[in-house]
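Hello K.,

You asked for the raw outputs rather than the summary table, so here they are, unedited. I folded two proteins back to back in the same session to keep the settings identical. This is the first:
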Amino acid sequence: MKEKKNIIKVLRPVFGRIESAVGTTVDRISRGNVYGKLIILIGFLELMPVVITLFYPSEIRYAPWFVIPSFSAIALGIIIGMFTKQAPERTDEWQAPIRRGSFPVLFAWGFAIFLGSIPFFLGGIMDFLPALFESVSGWTTTGLSLADVESLPHIYLFFRSFMQYGGGLGFILMVNMLIHGKQEINLFNAEGHPDRIMPNLKKTSQTIFLLYNGFLLAGIISYAIFGMSFFDALCHAMSALSTAGFSTRADSIGAYGNIGIELVTIVLMLVGATNFAILLLLVKGKIRRVLGISEIRFMLAMTLVFSLLIAASLVMDGNGVGESLHNAFFGVITAFSTTGYTIANYAEWNAFAVFLIFILMFIGGGAGSTAGGIKIVRVHVLFKSAVSGVIRRLFPSNKVISLSYYKVQGKSPIDGDLVSETLGFFFSYIAIFMLGTALILLFSPGTDVQKGAFEFASALGTVGISNGLTKAANYPTLIVEMFGMVLGRLEIFIVFVGIFSAVSRLKKFEFKRAVKKNKKDKKTKEHGSL
């Protein structure tokens, strides 16, 4: 324990100097404009895959397709920063924090998705729409893919996993880690980071970054110990930790047939599906406190129950007990963590087992984690509320049943506002799922309801498990899935609020321009009459 503390003490000042230097430079270049900062950051992220050419020199011919969009983005960010200023934050409208937080987040993700598609398109790997689909799937940590991974160059395999690594962290978190801004709290919340695990936001971002990369390094080393090549270990560790699912093998983790590799993957998926505040408690060794958190207890119970049910159904189909438990446990973890790695062919499973996997994809992982879905904490709140409602009906009394749950910060009440907000998100999620499924069935004639529903649930939950529909899908179906992936990663409301904010700004701009034009015309008439 003392050695760990000493290492942290040594690394923290070094990391602090590096991030301070980079942050100051970027801040000066962009002059505090959040859009300039985000564009510059995304441009630098686009440049990272070029490092792979040092190890695979024959792939240097693909480097320009990363360098050109990267340098173009960095130059654009600098120009925007130099010639625009950050608008002062208004406090006279209650909507201001929500709107100001949502639109920059939506802009960052949209710009990153577009920029991420360019190397695939310019490099001749894919046409533009499939390239855009691959980028959406990467940044949103989904894992649905149209690429033939067995024939992809290493630089593109790395880029796919690196997109998922960056998407798991989030662009706003990376910006906040380096630089300060007036809107940083609104942006941080809007991107889906609910917990402040340190006294200030900058230290929170830095701590999450250190945790994320610490587990990444541990994952790479563990994979290598069990026989995976360094390149494959790097790619799979990035994807598993971000609960994403891109693999360097067509048969995913199952291609290795190695129980050690599967166990490492399970641990990384569980880490990725867990709230960063909870992970910090784990690192500090506060196991008993972690086990008292409602979200963790619900996750453990869910894993046990669903694993046993799926295993029992597989045994009834004639499979061995050991094999069934093994496949069921891995399938449960990969489904609710919304990772999408596979070791078995789900097409060979019975309908009951597939249906349970379907439910787990809906539930998703922990709030504030890299996982998608409705989130365990919301399901837990709804479950307790439903049970409480049944008890009130069965045993009516004058006593008031107080509901609560335990999170990192301690006991928290489940009040009417929390239940109402949770129900609002739940029904919005279900409505979008039904609409998306209907559109897939409309655009993909001959697809049955089960396949269409499963594929869109996988996209909306950012899971990545596929029944083969995506690979054979037409462009309209791919577009529907892309919208599902973005809505799932940004948790629906941020997308709608961001779009509303953009439309409002556009109307406001047009109104101001009309007012200026009227004043100018009025002055012209007055001058003419004189």
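The second followed immediately with the same parameters:
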Amino acid sequence: MPPVLQLRDVRLTLGGQPLLDGAELSVAPRERIALVGRNGSGKSTLLKIAAGDIEPDDGSRFAQPGAHMRYLQQEPDLSAFATVSDFILNGLSEEDDPYRARALMEELGVQPDAKPSSLSGGEARRAALVRTLAPMPEVLLLDEPTNHLDLLAIEWLEKELSETRSAFVLISHDKRLLANLTRATVWLDRGATRRLEQGFAAFEAWRDQQLEEEEIERHKLDRRIVMEEHWLRYGVTARRKRNMRRVGELGEMRKERREARRVQGEIKMAVSEASASGKLVIEADRLAKSYGERPIVRDFSIRVARGDRLGIIGANGAGKTTLVNLITGVLAPDSGAIRLGASLEMATLDQRRASLEPTTTLVDALTGGGSDFVAVNGQRKHVFGYMKDFLFGPEQARTPIGKLSGGERGRLMLARALAQPSNLLVLDEPTNDLDIETLDLLQELLADYPGTIVLVSHDRDFLDRVATSVIVSEGDGRWMEYAGGYSDMIVQRGYGLAGPDALAPPKAAKEQGREAPRPAAKRRLSFKEKHALEKLPQKIADLRGVLARLDSQLADPQLHARDPKAFSRATNDYGAKQKDLTRAEEEWLTLEMLREEIEG
């Protein structure tokens, strides 16, 4: 099928450095493509070229005549419009249906008469999504569409994109969104693109294989250079004349190695650990907090022990940050009691990056000013070395914070927070603007952190990998704790944030600058849940059959003596299949109870 949009051999140089060097992108009708790469690799720039907003230095851009494309910028600008409605309707052509735009505004809780200057980041993002999605174009170019969105809106967007007839190219740090939606992956690495004809779920294993093969080829080139250099030194004395062809080839190999743009260095994270806290970290008893007549937290109690990883989930405006401030003692409750454990040392990452002054230089932000050293784990480290650990070059030392990209600001805030000695980490949206590789390394660091973590996040995959329990807003100031991560909460609760107990958004303007979540949809079994209900009984029967065969095999009293390896293999298989059976039976029971509740 011919492409609707195609970029070929695109090249672009910024600041004397090649950003794009032969990059390509091809989008066929209804294709779903993940565009991935490290922060600063040029993903947003490539998308702008695809949208026709930037002209490359070289290369070609082709779009099918009459093909309708919409581009969602990472930072939408609404400043030229009097109201949100004006901004959205201005993006529609005469052929587009204005009723669809109004329906999307209603679904996302967008206030049509709101002034753009009064919008929060999440509200501006919702308005931009409506403007982008309403025309139902042939191609959607989406740059970080989940930025500033809460989980309600993220799940809504995932459903909308899963049902769209439009092709789309999606840049996102939300791994769950990418894995669920995409069917092909384009990796932008060192200026060039490589394409995988599978969705993001298969990307990371493929990327690691590509890098491993590249390292093998580089090693082979190094060995060839060593061999040729040996020949030059010792192989020409008998002939007294150099073989100029081989000399030229050696020069070409040296040039290839010298000019090879190596894989961008890995970020090196280490958290400064304070002495261990007491076993009890936080004990809250019947906490309550209201703003005016609106309850934010009511009758909330919890015990947090050393080593717990507590995730906090809720719609924008539900009061997540308020709850964090209450349980960490930053904010006094209206009623109830809070007791903090002994020897607590807390480090905080602020989601708004509020502590960063735009004019402060990178070095001063890390050192506090007046020094060239950072204290990490009780040891002085030169700031340039610490910058390198977080992928900042020496030339960026005097760069004002306001000139950094969103991803660079995110890395800087992590560098500042992790340098503080702590046994309690409070992370408010730590995944904002981080690339996928940095997210993976942050997850590994948090897994090894010996202290306690309180985490606010809308990233479902991150919550599943990090949290040992999650606290979820149930509406009207009520919060409930569930064991496990986000997916575990769904199983226990029976529905996500958009279920029957989700907060319904007011039609009036937002309160105190807080965003209202979208209306709760009537709970229905999803396609995935229906499919699971149909398939699980057969899966359970198959597992029981396997267990019966293994049980019969293990009943042979001579098996261990006759074939120890077969006995060990059967024993291990029996344990694994028994766990699979238990999980399948629990999943089926949960879904069946949910079905009965909905239909009854």
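Residues 237-242, 501-522 have pLDDT under 50 and may be disordered.

Happy to rerun anything if the numbers look odd on your end.

Regards,
P.
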